[in-house]
Automatic annotation (TrEMBL), chain B:
Residues 5-234 form the ABC transporter domain. Keywords: ATP-binding, Nucleotide-binding, Transport. It comes from the Bacteria. GO terms for molecular function: ATP binding; ATP hydrolysis activity. SUPFAM superfamilies: P-loop containing nucleoside triphosphate hydrolases (SSF52540). The keyword Oxidoreductase does not apply. InterPro entries: AAA+_ATPase (IPR003593), ABC_transporter-like_ATP-bd (IPR003439), P-loop_NTPase (IPR027417). PANTHER family: ABC TRANSPORTER, ATP-BINDING PROTEIN. This is ABC-2 type transport system ATP-binding protein. Belongs to the ABC transporter superfamily. It holds the Pfam family ABC_tran.
């Protein structure tokens, strides 16, 4: 366990030693703050109309789900850039042999790498959450819904990071890893679109779509089907990553 | 005494190409084993297998009594490895990097500062401890690689070409360090420089085309080296036929009209008879020198022999 933490903390700190993490944090914050303010603006212009409607959506409904939904889309673009270097670059710089000859198992290596990057992801989510929380100074929030959105985004990034890590294990070059991860994520994201077309609904595609499960949780409906989708998804790709690292020793 | 490393029948294929073929050897405490071979002979592959970076296609490796496959963690605890490219995180400082290595190798928290300090002193890194690895020269980076390998005071130290990229003074320091480490550890080092083996190793192994062709102590090899050949220079051309008749002379090659080289057997040294003969015949003896076979000669002749087989 202490080995996993050692690997994770190095990974996390290394991210901040390059401009990468800072740039991504800044860009994300800037774009999402802009979108957040747009939503607040929309709410203030809609407020008089909403007041006259019975059971109208509240402040949280109008501001939080779009903000977290957009964050999900932007993270879909950003996560592959963060995960691409995880294993791939270690292999290219030949630093992987340091880990392979140290008394740590492949499981420790993969989990350490995964948790290290997840640390950055948690930081990103925390920063995003601060935006709606800032409204508390002049309004009330529906904390249940806010929590559901945080949970949805958290599960989403655990799945994104797992796929990215796996692609980084498989690919020979970081760019290839990023492209592969991005392609897979985008495919899983838009799988649902074809399901909505005409009458050609496919149960399988609907189940596989990440977006569908994300939105279910986001709406406040936390069901075990959606939770287990994300858990299974993440576990599968972490297992595949471990397998792929095992494979490194067997063939070259 | 139990062996620190026992490698049995190691074989490694890359696809159909056989990089290492049925290599077996053992390393005991207090030995420095030099691993010699031409480029592509299978040195690095063998090292990688010993350190768990590469799984052998067949064979077994035991480190300090632990099987590398069945108990990898226990086996790797007593292992320090410097690969052919030092595995350094260039964005860290020397101190941070060694701290990370110490944690990876499971050194107890309260003894980490001491072990880092000792490794830095041994490798001459104390004055660059707070500098970024990326900004240091190749020689320093190589030394950080060595520091990383000896940091946790492992029983077995495996160094893949440790003196590459170092200047002559550093090479001398590193060789002294290796000899010092060899006193209470087992050290394997691979190299293609033969003088290095002569200077710092107690045992030598030559690998060629994936096969082990020599496993000898350096003392034994030195014995092999000072036998065999005499170089003779005379004022007048000498009669080769007469000299060939002297007992103990195996063959004679003439280099120029006055200079010949006499190959003789190890047991009967005919130098005295040759000198008498030349003086008696009045050819004018000017020079009679035993030719030492250098390690290069042995290496080249052995690999040649092996390839002709």
């Amino acid at each position: 366990m202490s080995m996993i933490l050692a690997i994770a903390s190095r990974e996390f700190r290394s991210l901040f030693l390059s401009p990468m993490a800072w740039t991504i944090l800044a860009v994300l914050q800037f774009i999402l703050a802009f979108l957040f303010l747009t939503q607040v603006e929309a709410f203030t212009s809609l407020q008089p109309k909403l007041a006259s409607i019975e059971g109208a959506p509240g402040l949280t409904d109008i501001i939080v789900p779009p903000l977290f939904g957009n964050a999900g889309i932007i993270l879909l673009l950003v996560t592959p850039l963060l995960t691409m270097r995880l294993i791939c670059e270690e292999r290219r710089n030949k630093t992987l042999s340091l880990l392979l000859s140290a008394p740590v198992s492949n499981i420790d290596i993969i989990l350490g790498k995964y948790l290290g990057l997840l640390g950055l992801m948690l930081l990103i989510i925390a920063l995003i959450t601060l935006m709606p929380l800032s409204l508390l100074s002049g309004a009330e929030l529906d904390f249940g819904k806010l929590f559901a959105n945080i949970l949805a985004l958290l599960l989403l990034v655990t799945a994104f990071t797992a796929i990215g890590l796996f692609m980084s294990c498989v690919a020979g070059h970081p760019t290839v890893a990023a492209m592969g991860a991005f392609g897979m994520l985008l495919l899983l994201w838009i799988l649902d679109w074809s399901a909505g077309m005409n009458d050609q609904r496919s149960e399988l595609f609907e189940y596989l779509s990440i977006l569908r499960h994300f939105q279910n949780i986001q709406s406040g409906l936390i069901s075990s089907a959606d939770l287990s989708y994300f858990v299974l998804f993440t576990a599968t790709f972490i297992t595949l990553s471990i397998r792929s690292l095992d494979n490194d020793r067997l063939q070259k | 005494m139990t062996a620190l490393i026992e490698a049995e029948h190691l074989t490694r294929y890359y696809g159909k190409h056989c990089a290492v073929n049925d290599v077996s050897f053992a390393l005991a405490k207090g030995e420095v084993l030099g691993f010699l071979g031409a480029n592509g002979a299978g040195k690095t592959t063998t090292m990688q297998m010993l350190c768990g970076n590469l799984a052998p296609s067949a064979g077994q490796i035991k480190i300090n009594g632990f099987d590398l496959l069945d108990q990898p963690k226990a086996a790797k605890l007593s292992l320090g490895y410097l690969p052919d490219t030092p595995p350094l995180y260039k964005e860290l400082t020397v101190q941070e990097f060694l701290l990370y290595c110490a944690r990876l190798h499971g050194i107890a928290k309260n003894s980490i500062p001491d072990s880092i300090k000792r490794a830095q002193e041994r490798c001459g890194l104390t004055e660059v401890a707070d500098r970024l690895i990326a900004n240091l020269s190749k020689g320093f980076q190589q030394r950080i690689g060595i520091a990383q390998a000896i940091l946790h005071n492992p029983e077995v130290i495996v160094l893949d070409e440790p003196t590459v990229g170092l200047d002559p003074i550093q090479i001398r320091e590193i060789r002294a360090l290796i000899r010092e480490l060899g006193q209470d550890h087992g050290v394997i080092l691979s190299t293609h420089r033969l003088t290095e083996v002569q200077e710092s190793c107690s045992h030598v192994q030559i690998i060629d085309q994936g096969q082990l062709i020599l496993n000898e102590t350096v003392a034994g090899l030195n014995r092999q080296m000072d036998t065999g050949t005499l170089q003779v220079l005379t004022r007048l051309p000498s009669d080769i036929n007469k000299l060939s008749a002297i007992p103990g002379v195996n063959s004679i090659e003439s280099i120029s009209a006055n200079r010949i080289r006499i190959h003789h057997s190890v047991t009967a040294n005919p130098a005295e008879h040759i000198a008498e003969q030349i003086i008696a015949a009045g050819w004018g003896l000017q020079e009679l020198t035993p030719v030492k076979r250098s390690m290069e000669d042995i290496f080249i002749s052995l690999t040649k022999e092996h390839r002709e087989l």
